[in-house]
Amino acid sequence: MPLDDVKTASRLAAFLAAFLWLAPLQAAQFKVLLFTKTAGWQHEAVHAGVTAVQELGKLHDFEVFWSADAARVMNDAELAKYQAVVFLLTTGDVLDEGQQAAFERYIRRGGGYVGVHSAADTEYGWPWYTKMVGHMFHVHPAVQTAVLKVERSDFPGMERFAARNLFTDEWYEYGPARARLHYLLSVDESSYDPNTTWPDRQGKGMGAFHPVAWYQHYDGGRAFYTGLGHLAATYRDPLFLHHLYGGIYWAATGRGVARD
Questions:
Q1: Which of 51, 52, 54 is nearest to 65 (CA)?
Q2: What are the sequence ranges of the domains in the chain?
Q3: What is the pTM assigned to this prediction?
Q4: Residues of the chain with pLDDT under 50
Q5: pLDDT value at position 40?
Q6: Considering only the top CATH level, what class is 27-253?
Q7: Residue 202: exposed, middle, or buried by beta-carbon count in 10 A (0-12, 13-18, 19+)?
Q8: Is the Cα dihedral 149, 193, 182, 44 positive or negative?
Q9: 114 Cβ contact partners less than 8 Å away, ≥ 6 residues apart
Protein backbone atom coordinates (compact mmCIF):
# COMPACT_ATOMS: atom_id res chain seq x y z
CA MET A 1 0.00 0.00 0.00
CA PRO A 2 1.40 3.48 -0.92
CA LEU A 3 2.48 5.67 1.96
CA ASP A 4 -0.26 8.26 1.28
CA ASP A 5 -2.91 5.53 1.41
CA VAL A 6 -1.52 4.27 4.72
CA LYS A 7 -1.68 7.77 6.19
CA THR A 8 -5.24 8.25 4.93
CA ALA A 9 -6.36 4.92 6.39
CA SER A 10 -4.71 5.75 9.70
CA ARG A 11 -6.44 9.13 9.87
CA LEU A 12 -9.79 7.54 9.01
CA ALA A 13 -9.34 4.89 11.69
CA ALA A 14 -8.44 7.57 14.26
CA PHE A 15 -11.49 9.64 13.27
CA LEU A 16 -13.84 6.66 13.56
CA ALA A 17 -12.39 5.70 16.94
CA ALA A 18 -12.88 9.24 18.22
CA PHE A 19 -16.43 9.37 16.84
CA LEU A 20 -17.43 6.09 18.45
CA TRP A 21 -15.92 7.16 21.76
CA LEU A 22 -17.82 10.46 21.72
CA ALA A 23 -21.13 9.09 20.43
CA PRO A 24 -23.52 8.49 23.34
CA LEU A 25 -24.88 5.00 23.81
CA GLN A 26 -28.64 4.81 23.38
CA ALA A 27 -30.26 4.41 26.77
CA ALA A 28 -32.99 1.89 27.49
CA GLN A 29 -36.57 3.14 27.81
CA PHE A 30 -36.50 2.92 31.60
CA LYS A 31 -35.03 0.94 34.49
CA VAL A 32 -36.85 -1.53 36.73
CA LEU A 33 -35.89 -3.04 40.07
CA LEU A 34 -37.13 -6.62 40.33
CA PHE A 35 -37.51 -7.43 44.04
CA THR A 36 -38.14 -11.04 45.14
CA LYS A 37 -37.49 -11.23 48.88
CA THR A 38 -39.71 -13.65 50.81
CA ALA A 39 -40.24 -14.01 54.54
CA GLY A 40 -43.06 -16.53 54.25
CA TRP A 41 -44.17 -18.90 51.51
CA GLN A 42 -41.61 -19.31 48.71
CA HIS A 43 -43.29 -19.80 45.33
CA GLU A 44 -41.72 -22.28 42.95
CA ALA A 45 -42.44 -19.80 40.17
CA VAL A 46 -39.97 -17.15 41.40
CA HIS A 47 -37.15 -18.07 39.04
CA ALA A 48 -39.53 -18.48 36.10
CA GLY A 49 -40.87 -15.03 36.90
CA VAL A 50 -37.41 -13.49 37.08
CA THR A 51 -36.48 -14.99 33.71
CA ALA A 52 -39.74 -13.75 32.21
CA VAL A 53 -39.23 -10.16 33.37
CA GLN A 54 -35.64 -10.21 32.16
CA GLU A 55 -36.84 -11.42 28.74
CA LEU A 56 -39.53 -8.72 28.70
CA GLY A 57 -36.73 -6.24 29.30
CA LYS A 58 -34.91 -7.49 26.23
CA LEU A 59 -38.08 -7.50 24.14
CA HIS A 60 -39.24 -4.03 25.17
CA ASP A 61 -35.85 -2.37 25.76
CA PHE A 62 -35.92 -1.68 29.48
CA GLU A 63 -33.24 -2.52 32.04
CA VAL A 64 -33.90 -5.01 34.83
CA PHE A 65 -31.91 -5.32 38.03
CA TRP A 66 -32.90 -8.31 40.16
CA SER A 67 -32.33 -8.49 43.91
CA ALA A 68 -33.80 -10.09 47.02
CA ASP A 69 -31.45 -8.08 49.26
CA ALA A 70 -33.54 -5.33 50.83
CA ALA A 71 -30.52 -3.81 52.59
CA ARG A 72 -28.83 -3.31 49.24
CA VAL A 73 -31.67 -1.86 47.18
CA MET A 74 -34.26 -0.30 49.51
CA ASN A 75 -32.53 3.00 50.12
CA ASP A 76 -32.83 6.46 48.57
CA ALA A 77 -29.68 6.29 46.45
CA GLU A 78 -30.45 2.91 44.89
CA LEU A 79 -34.18 3.46 44.37
CA ALA A 80 -33.46 6.72 42.56
CA LYS A 81 -32.03 4.65 39.68
CA TYR A 82 -35.39 3.06 38.82
CA GLN A 83 -38.67 4.21 37.34
CA ALA A 84 -40.56 1.19 38.71
CA VAL A 85 -40.11 -1.51 41.35
CA VAL A 86 -41.68 -4.93 40.82
CA PHE A 87 -42.55 -6.92 43.94
CA LEU A 88 -42.53 -10.37 42.31
CA LEU A 89 -44.01 -13.14 44.49
CA THR A 90 -42.82 -11.48 47.70
CA THR A 91 -44.30 -12.71 50.99
CA GLY A 92 -44.25 -11.69 54.62
CA ASP A 93 -42.42 -8.85 56.34
CA VAL A 94 -39.64 -8.07 53.87
CA LEU A 95 -38.62 -4.49 54.75
CA ASP A 96 -37.53 -2.93 58.04
CA GLU A 97 -38.75 0.52 59.10
CA GLY A 98 -35.91 2.41 57.42
CA GLN A 99 -36.41 0.53 54.16
CA GLN A 100 -40.15 1.16 54.31
CA ALA A 101 -39.53 4.88 54.76
CA ALA A 102 -37.18 4.92 51.76
CA PHE A 103 -39.75 3.16 49.59
CA GLU A 104 -42.48 5.59 50.66
CA ARG A 105 -40.23 8.50 49.64
CA TYR A 106 -39.56 6.79 46.32
CA ILE A 107 -43.27 6.55 45.50
CA ARG A 108 -43.91 10.12 46.65
CA ARG A 109 -41.24 11.30 44.21
CA GLY A 110 -43.27 9.76 41.38
CA GLY A 111 -42.01 6.17 41.35
CA GLY A 112 -43.98 3.17 40.16
CA TYR A 113 -44.96 -0.05 41.96
CA VAL A 114 -45.92 -3.37 40.37
CA GLY A 115 -47.23 -6.16 42.59
CA VAL A 116 -47.48 -9.72 41.30
CA HIS A 117 -49.64 -12.37 42.97
CA SER A 118 -48.34 -12.79 46.54
CA ALA A 119 -47.23 -9.17 46.69
CA ALA A 120 -50.71 -8.96 48.28
CA ASP A 121 -49.46 -11.44 50.93
CA THR A 122 -46.69 -9.06 51.95
CA GLU A 123 -46.30 -6.47 54.73
CA TYR A 124 -49.72 -6.74 56.40
CA GLY A 125 -48.47 -4.60 59.27
CA TRP A 126 -47.48 -1.64 57.05
CA PRO A 127 -50.71 0.34 56.45
CA TRP A 128 -49.18 2.54 53.74
CA TYR A 129 -48.21 -0.55 51.74
CA THR A 130 -51.59 -2.25 52.14
CA LYS A 131 -53.32 0.86 50.77
CA MET A 132 -50.91 0.91 47.84
CA VAL A 133 -51.59 -2.74 46.97
CA GLY A 134 -55.32 -2.05 47.24
CA HIS A 135 -56.59 -5.43 48.48
CA MET A 136 -54.73 -7.86 50.72
CA PHE A 137 -54.76 -11.64 50.37
CA HIS A 138 -57.12 -13.55 52.66
CA VAL A 139 -57.33 -17.17 51.45
CA HIS A 140 -57.29 -19.24 48.26
CA PRO A 141 -58.81 -22.49 46.99
CA ALA A 142 -56.94 -25.14 45.03
CA VAL A 143 -55.50 -24.15 41.66
CA GLN A 144 -58.30 -24.33 39.11
CA THR A 145 -59.30 -23.24 35.64
CA ALA A 146 -61.79 -20.37 35.68
CA VAL A 147 -63.15 -17.61 33.47
CA LEU A 148 -61.41 -14.24 33.60
CA LYS A 149 -63.55 -11.23 32.70
CA VAL A 150 -62.24 -7.94 31.34
CA GLU A 151 -63.43 -5.00 33.40
CA ARG A 152 -61.51 -2.38 31.47
CA SER A 153 -59.63 -2.68 28.20
CA ASP A 154 -58.12 0.80 27.78
CA PHE A 155 -55.05 0.10 29.89
CA PRO A 156 -51.63 -1.04 28.61
CA GLY A 157 -51.41 -4.81 28.26
CA MET A 158 -55.17 -5.38 28.13
CA GLU A 159 -55.41 -5.30 24.33
CA ARG A 160 -55.12 -9.07 23.81
CA PHE A 161 -57.69 -10.28 26.33
CA ALA A 162 -61.02 -11.52 25.05
CA ALA A 163 -64.09 -10.37 26.99
CA ARG A 164 -64.01 -13.79 28.72
CA ASN A 165 -60.85 -15.91 28.96
CA LEU A 166 -60.13 -19.39 30.28
CA PHE A 167 -57.21 -19.12 32.67
CA THR A 168 -55.69 -21.40 35.31
CA ASP A 169 -54.33 -19.93 38.52
CA GLU A 170 -54.57 -19.80 42.29
CA TRP A 171 -57.57 -17.51 42.70
CA TYR A 172 -56.87 -15.34 45.71
CA GLU A 173 -59.78 -14.17 47.80
CA TYR A 174 -58.98 -10.67 49.04
CA GLY A 175 -60.00 -8.53 51.95
CA PRO A 176 -61.88 -5.24 51.47
CA ALA A 177 -60.56 -2.54 49.18
CA ARG A 178 -58.22 -0.17 51.00
CA ALA A 179 -58.19 2.52 48.32
CA ARG A 180 -60.10 3.79 45.28
CA LEU A 181 -59.04 1.37 42.55
CA HIS A 182 -59.49 1.05 38.79
CA TYR A 183 -60.28 -2.61 38.10
CA LEU A 184 -58.93 -4.37 35.00
CA LEU A 185 -59.77 -8.07 35.46
CA SER A 186 -62.14 -10.11 37.58
CA VAL A 187 -62.86 -13.82 37.86
CA ASP A 188 -66.28 -15.42 37.46
CA GLU A 189 -66.81 -17.39 40.67
CA SER A 190 -69.52 -19.50 39.01
CA SER A 191 -66.80 -20.98 36.78
CA TYR A 192 -64.80 -22.59 39.64
CA ASP A 193 -65.17 -23.74 43.24
CA PRO A 194 -64.09 -20.90 45.54
CA ASN A 195 -64.74 -22.73 48.81
CA THR A 196 -61.64 -23.12 50.97
CA THR A 197 -60.94 -24.49 54.42
CA TRP A 198 -57.63 -23.66 56.10
CA PRO A 199 -56.62 -24.47 59.66
CA ASP A 200 -57.27 -20.88 60.75
CA ARG A 201 -59.63 -19.37 58.17
CA GLN A 202 -62.29 -20.22 55.61
CA GLY A 203 -63.07 -18.80 52.23
CA LYS A 204 -66.28 -18.83 50.24
CA GLY A 205 -65.28 -16.46 47.49
CA MET A 206 -65.96 -12.74 47.16
CA GLY A 207 -69.42 -12.89 45.62
CA ALA A 208 -70.69 -11.13 42.53
CA PHE A 209 -67.48 -9.19 41.98
CA HIS A 210 -64.11 -10.88 42.50
CA PRO A 211 -61.26 -8.60 41.35
CA VAL A 212 -57.99 -9.96 39.98
CA ALA A 213 -56.06 -6.98 38.60
CA TRP A 214 -56.25 -3.22 39.16
CA TYR A 215 -54.29 0.02 39.30
CA GLN A 216 -54.34 3.38 41.04
CA HIS A 217 -52.46 6.65 41.38
CA TYR A 218 -51.10 6.55 44.90
CA ASP A 219 -49.35 9.11 47.11
CA GLY A 220 -47.62 10.83 44.21
CA GLY A 221 -46.74 7.66 42.31
CA ARG A 222 -48.41 4.79 40.45
CA ALA A 223 -49.39 1.30 41.62
CA PHE A 224 -50.42 -1.71 39.51
CA TYR A 225 -51.30 -5.17 40.85
CA THR A 226 -52.16 -8.49 39.23
CA GLY A 227 -53.24 -11.56 41.15
CA LEU A 228 -52.16 -13.83 38.30
CA GLY A 229 -48.78 -15.56 38.34
CA HIS A 230 -48.88 -18.46 40.80
CA LEU A 231 -47.79 -21.15 38.34
CA ALA A 232 -44.31 -21.22 36.82
CA ALA A 233 -45.77 -22.09 33.43
CA THR A 234 -47.82 -18.88 33.46
CA TYR A 235 -44.58 -16.96 32.89
CA ARG A 236 -44.41 -18.56 29.44
CA ASP A 237 -47.95 -17.47 28.51
CA PRO A 238 -47.85 -14.60 25.97
CA LEU A 239 -51.21 -13.26 27.16
CA PHE A 240 -50.04 -13.00 30.77
CA LEU A 241 -46.65 -11.59 29.78
CA HIS A 242 -48.28 -8.84 27.72
CA HIS A 243 -50.54 -8.05 30.69
CA LEU A 244 -47.54 -7.93 33.03
CA TYR A 245 -45.55 -5.72 30.69
CA GLY A 246 -48.49 -3.36 30.40
CA GLY A 247 -48.46 -2.89 34.15
CA ILE A 248 -44.68 -2.38 34.24
CA TYR A 249 -44.84 0.09 31.34
CA TRP A 250 -47.59 2.16 32.97
CA ALA A 251 -45.98 2.09 36.40
CA ALA A 252 -42.65 3.21 34.97
CA THR A 253 -43.91 5.87 32.54
CA GLY A 254 -47.48 6.80 33.45
CA ARG A 255 -48.37 6.52 29.78
CA GLY A 256 -50.96 4.53 27.87
CA VAL A 257 -54.18 5.00 29.87
CA ALA A 258 -57.03 6.41 27.85
CA ARG A 259 -58.88 7.73 30.90
CA ASP A 260 -58.78 7.61 34.71
A1: 54
A2: 27-253
A3: 0.89
A4: 1, 3, 6, 8-9, 15-24
A5: 82
A6: alpha beta
A7: exposed
A8: negative
A9: 84, 85, 86, 87, 223, 224, 225, 244, 247, 248, 251
